[in-house]
Amino acid sequence: PFAALLGIARADLAEAAKLLGERVVLTEVVSYQDLASMISSGQITGPRTVVILSYALCGFTHVASIAIFVGGTAALAPSRRDDLARLGFRALLAATLATLMTGCVAGMFSDGSGVLMGKP
Predict the structure, then answer these.
(1) Extents of the domains making up the chain
(2) For a Cys-Cys bond, which of 7, 10, 35, 118 suits 107, CB 3.0-4.6 Å?
């Protein structure tokens, strides 16, 4: 549903949803590599979809980042580890929604040419 809310073309919804889920579970690096291969193989065809995904996939928001956040911060305050773990998942959700909103804004400014607000 998030891919559809971003304004991704119906033809590209399944691939976009896969990439968005992959970014949360794995990392953005893997998602960008898969995006590049999907573009070159023709699985993703819409230039507006590419613009939206380019922005929606950016950000350090994935499951591994929770461990980095909790582990690093818990070293400073070991007694608050449980609180940090609870906040970690909330931070993951908030950061994911923030990057998705960035993709939405990029989609608003995209004219379908694959370029935002200007000439290539």
Answers:
(1) 1-109
(2) 7
